[in-house]
Amino acid sequence: MHAMSAHNPMSARLAAEAGFDAIWGSGFELSASYAVPDASILSASQHLDMMRAIAAAVDVPVIADIDTGFGNAVNVSYMVPQYEAAGVSAVVMEDKTFPKDTSLRADGRQELVRVEEFQGKVEAACAARRNPDFCVIARTEALIAGLGQQEALARAAAYASAGADAILIHSKQSTPDEILSFVGAWRGRVPLVVVPTAYPQLRESDIQALGKVGLVIYGNHAIRAAVGAMRDVFSRIRRDGGIHAVDADLPTVKEIIALQGDAGMRELERRYLK
Ligand code: SPV
Ligand code: MG
Questions:
Q1: Could you write out the three-class secondary structure of 21-34?
Q2: Which keywords appear in this protein's UniProt record, sorted alphabetically (predicted)?
Q3: Which atom of ligand 1 is nearest to the CA of 28?
Q4: What is the SS3 assignment for 254?
Q5: ipTM for the complex?
Q6: CATH number of the domain that residue 69 is part of
Q7: Do 170 and 240 belong together in one domain?
Q8: Cross-strand bridge partners of residue 137
Q9: Are residues 129 and 10 in the same domain?
Q10: What is the pLDDT of residues 125-182, one digit of tens each?
């Protein structure tokens, strides 16, 4: 299964249209779209509201990135049913301290909570869900924090025994070695989740061949694509002194109208405007 990041309903709709199996409700992307660091700066309700809007816009499952769970196990217990009610299918919660720092920044502040504390948060998340099919994915940042494979494996096993349905193992090394070694050593029964942003050379076929990875998340490609495209078009318009040259290179207004669900609106008009 492959999930593409999204920061709003339109990016989610484009990801679904491209054929991704799920939407990654990325905290990094939402923070970036507000032009703030991915460091627990946005509120839980800002993220929750966006997940609700995304879930309403697509038919594929939404996997919500709830960072550290917005506090302790009590906060997690309160938030999980709200994500479920918002139409989300899974949450990913990481074992960092609140407020978190983003994982992929060089020299970020990466402090982990005690294993027992995070087990309590995983247990609280599992107990709080109403639909047994709702997935609780525990994410360990042990490799990101530089604590090594033994610590990462121990944490992953502890979180699986606390009830996590899958373990997200994150790495920021520029080669896949660290992740490949972890996956090879993983003896747990639950599947793994990987986010190959930092080691993009690892392809889907390589990951599938490992056999233990159930989900690949592309963590920030929607916002990076959007930033690149906007930068390029905006600078061309300034340079060209108008929109005459870029116009032919952009999606048409008609295409945007279609993506806004115009066909559905016209159908409602036909049926109900009397
Ligand atoms: C996100 O997309 O918000 C993630 C993945 O959590 S990462 O930014 O790589 O930590
Ligand atoms: Mg995140």
A1: CEEEECHHHHHHHC
A2: Hydrolase, Pyruvate
A3: 3
A4: helix
A5: 0.99
A6: 3.20.20.60
A7: no
A8: 92, 166
A9: yes
A10: 999 999 999 999 999 999 999 999 999 999 999 999 999 999 999 999 999 999 999 9
Mutate to test the pocket of ligand 1, among 5, 143, 220 (most ligand atoms within 8 A of CB): 220
> Which helix (DSSP H) or strand (DSSP E) does residue 248 occupy?
none
3-class SS at 267? helix
Q: Assess whether 58 and 165 both reside in one domain.
A: yes
Domain boundaries, position 233: 227-272
Residues with CB under 6 A from ligand 1: 5, 26-29, 38, 65, 102-104, 195, 197, 219-220
Whether the CB-CB separation of 190 and 90 falls below 8 Å is answered with: no
What are the residues facing 168 on neighbouring strands? 139, 193
The pLDDT tens digits of the residues spanning 85-141 come to 999 999 999 999 999 999 999 999 999 999 999 999 999 999 999 999 999 999 999
Q: Is the pTM of this model over 0.90?
A: yes
Give the model confidence (pLDDT) of 28-64 as tens digits. 999 999 999 999 999 999 999 999 999 999 999 999 9
Q: Are residues 201 and 256 in the same domain?
A: no
Count: domains in the chain = 2
214-255 confidence digits (pLDDT tens):
999 999 999 999 999 999 999 999 999 999 999 999 999 999
Q: Which atom of ligand 1 is nearest to the CA of 104?
A: 9
HEC per residue, 8-69:
CHHHHHHHHHHCCCEEEECHHHHHHHCCCCCCCCCCHHHHHHHHHHHHHHCCCCEEEECCCC
Sign of CA dihedral 191, 61, 2, 31: negative
Assess whether 100 and 212 both reside in one domain: yes
**Same domain flag for 56 and 76:** yes
Strand 166-169 to 135-140 pairing: parallel
CA dist 199 → 14, 170, 196, 218 (Å) = 24, 11, 5, 11
Q: Are residues 7 and 74 in the same domain?
A: yes
